[in-house]
Each structure stands twice: as structure tokens, then as C-alpha cells.
Amino acid sequence: MNDELTAELSRIAPVKRDEPMSRHVTFGVGGPADLFVSVKNEEQLREAFVSGKRHGVAVHILGSGSNVLVGDGGIRGLVIDNQHAEIGEPWENGVGPRVRAGSGLSFATLARRMANGGYGGVEWACGIPGSLGGAVVSNAGAYGRSLGDVLISARLTNPDGEVSELSAADLELDYRRSALASGTIGESAVLSVDVRLQKGDAEALKETIRRFDEQRKSAQPTGQNCGSVFKNPPDKAAWEFVDGAGLRGHRIGNAQFSEQHSNFILNLGGATAKDITSLIELAQERIRERTGVEMTPEVAFVGEFE
Length: 306
Ligand SMILES: Cc1cc2nc3c(=O)[nH]c(=O)nc-3n(C[C@H](O)[C@H](O)[C@H](O)COP(=O)(O)OP(=O)(O)OC[C@H]3O[C@@H](n4cnc5c(N)ncnc54)[C@H](O)[C@@H]3O)c2cc1C
What we know:
This protein is α+β, with helices and mostly antiparallel strands. It contains nine helices and 18 strands. β9 and β10 form a beta hairpin. It binds flavin-adenine dinucleotide (FAD).
């Protein structure tokens, strides 16, 4: 890998070579990234992104790694580990309170911090482990709400370091979709997001979060996974299709469709990306044959698969 780039990145933030991605993603699988830089603030994030692009290498931004499946062959190029989790105080702008948060802050942390301070509007996101940058890319949501409902704007940098502020409409946020994911806006890094809040009662908000936590605990498995594997087709939940294909609990290698929630795949320990893609492909094939429905993965595939 380019020594000049490595030297340039080292002046911005700590860099590692051949860093195993399995350490950084919730699935716990994936081969090494050529270069891995951990950034802690907006300036480092912007500079690392611009630097990688200027040197012509593939640049992958990693938020919390909770929606990616990294191939066993790893990632060629640069991975930017986004730990820019700075958050300001909520402020009023005439139409209600809002807050600006760094794109590396987890959506769940934002929801909990705001509730503790007596601000609602995002309490439904208390169980979404991904970063706000990742939440923009997939328009993350839960319980019938999504980031697009509360996003005032997101600040993004392009590969030349030019920063722009885009609204939810500009970002084309829709069910688990965005202009970033579909590529209708060019390659960009999300730097920060501004979110609309509502003033509320901290105790009532914390109680709501406690109920959401209980609901999740009873519905979703713990352990190494990436949340929902497939997007819900229009008329029926994805888990019903996986069940219909007889795959609840089905295991390949060390990966298994969860017995508790069949739209989750669990790494039982030592699973490979190949085990997981084999399960995904098997489900897609069986569901296509039985119902004609094409199941779209919600998880993003990154790096080299065999
Ligand atoms: C236990 C569990 C529960 C979950 N529950 C939910 C849920 O209820 N609702 C839901 O919607 N999702 C859920 N998810 C999935 C996941 O948390 C979300 O999709 C989340 O938004 C992903 O964010 P991330 O930071 O982990 O993204 P990553 O997995 O790190 O990255 C995902 C994609 O976004 C890109 N990206 C990340 N940050 C940036 C940035 N700053 N700029 C540009 N691109 C970026 C990456 O390059 C990658 O292509 C769950 C996952 C788990 C493991």
C-alpha cells in the first residue's frame, strides 16, 4: 500500500496496516483492511477521506460496523474508522429544539442522552447500535419511525473536501434507502447531522426507552449479528419469508438463522463471511422459487468475497 498515503494519514490520526475487520464489525467476521485509520473528530474525518481519495485508493467509511458483512479476503484500500462522536447542546431555532451530533455517535446514544436531558423525538432509536453516519446511509429506523422523519440536515464532504449541507429530501431518504446508498449523489462522507427534537419529560422518556428495551430483548437475539439481514418486502415481514422457506434455525458452518428471530443471522463463533453469504443465497433461492419474491439484503457487502 502507498507509503506516501500511509505517512500522510499518520499525520492525521493513528494508522494500522492489515487490520482484521472481524474486530470492528458486529458480525465478527471479515479479513484484513490494507490501511485502517481511526479518526476522532470532524477535521480528521474530512482530511482522511480527502487524503485517501487524492491518492486514488478505495475509501470505505466504517461507522459502528453494525450493517456490513466484510468478505473473508478483507478490504483493499483504506478504511476510515469513524469515532467522531462529538455532540453539542440542544438549542432552539424558533421552530423547536434541535441538536448537532458527529456522524460517529451511535443513534442509540443520541436517543438516550437526549431523553436524559428531557428531549424526545428520537427515543424510538434507543436500540439502533449504528452510527448516525450509517443511519443516514440506510435511513435507519424502528417502530414505524426513521431518521428521515427527524433529520433537519446532514453535513457531507465530497472527495475534494468541499462541505455541503443536505436536507432529508436532498438525501432521498426512504425505507432503508438514501441517495448515498443508491449512488445518486457522488461518493461522500457524512460529517454531522442536525436532528429535530421535542421538549419532553425526562422520566417519561426514560420509561418509554425502558419499554422499547424490553420489547427488543424479548424479540431479538443477542450475540454477533448485523440486525435484520433482509429488507421487508412491501406486503409481508422478511422473517415470514425466511420461515416460509423452512430456514428458521438453519445452519451453515458456524452461521445460523436465529431460532428467535429468523431475519437475523448469528455468528455462532468462528463463522466465515462465506458461511453467511451461503445462508443468504440459500434463502434468496428458496424464497424466489416458492414465492417469486426477490429478497434484498439490508446488510452491505464490503471487500473481497471468494
Ligand atoms: C443488534 C442490531 C440491531 C439493529 N437494529 C436496527 C434497527 O432497529 N433499525 C435499523 O434501521 N437498523 C438496525 N440495525 C442495523 C444498523 O445498526 C443500522 O443499519 C445502522 O444505521 C448502521 O450504522 P453503522 O454505523 O453501523 O454503519 P456501518 O455498518 O459501519 O456502515 C454501513 C454503510 O454505511 C456507510 N457509512 C457509515 N458511516 C458513514 C459516513 N459517516 N459517511 C458515509 N458513509 C458511511 C458505510 O461505508 C457502509 O456502506 C441493527 C443492527 C444490529 C447489530
